[in-house]
Amino acid sequence: MPRELGNATKFSLMSFNIAHGRGLSLYQGFHNSNSIRKNLEKIALIIREHSPDIVAFQEIDQSSHWNKHIDLLKHIQDETNYRYSEHGIHNTRFGRKPLCYGNAFLSKHPILSCEVYPFGEKTVGEKGFMEARVQIESQEIDIINLHLDFRSRRTRITQIESILERIKRLHLADNVNPPLICGDFNTGSKAFSDAVRQFMIRSAQHVQYTYHPQNERTFPAHFPSRGLDFVLAPKPYKVKAARAIKSFASDHLPVLIDFSLFSYAKKLETRVSSLS
Length: 276
Description:
This protein has helices spanning 33-50, 72-80, 153-172, 195-203, 265-275; strands spanning 4-17, 54-61, 84-93, 99-107, 111-118, 128-136, 139-147, 180-184, 209-212, 229-234, 238-244, 255-264.
């Protein structure tokens, strides 16, 4: 068993489906630019109040006709004064009614790298995931931010295949902690044959995950009846607190997880031996 060294690196991660900035309404195209900006200010207020180290967004637009071509990530970043950001576009459509949206990261800490992986090639409604490596103190934190299909269990199961393959490759890499997984899974944690449970079962041959928050509902925000939004944590991450945040800035509630992460003697020995 590796021995913990020194102080733990402590940080928090928020996962938030912001529904294209439309708040609780059914369609962002019903809003004018002032209304969308007011919704974005509500989102920014939640972030400033809870001050997570990293925010993982889903359904966030860069320039789409249906929310008046407002760069949602830039607007939130300007309102919160976070230094680092990355936008991962899964949907791009040109023409009279262009669309450009996907997932994103906002961070207080340097984002060392970022990759974007759409699940397919649809121009509307395509889902995907993005992977970022964030430097927090002496630790490099890998995070996968996903958004799975909402219509089909079979499609969700297919979509997690590429994420499982990515975890397998990271697992084989030297001196890399397994990635945190977060986002909108569009299914609950209890259904054995659906994406959350199958992900944890099938990843266990390489990495054991636990899901957070447990026993909380995140959708719909005005009267939550289902938990769809999770952060999956592998060892050696330790979850100190996990909760859904009551709000009306989106149809999803954001989830906030507090972590600690120790350095391990085994990793240190590996690095020393590689320099010998």
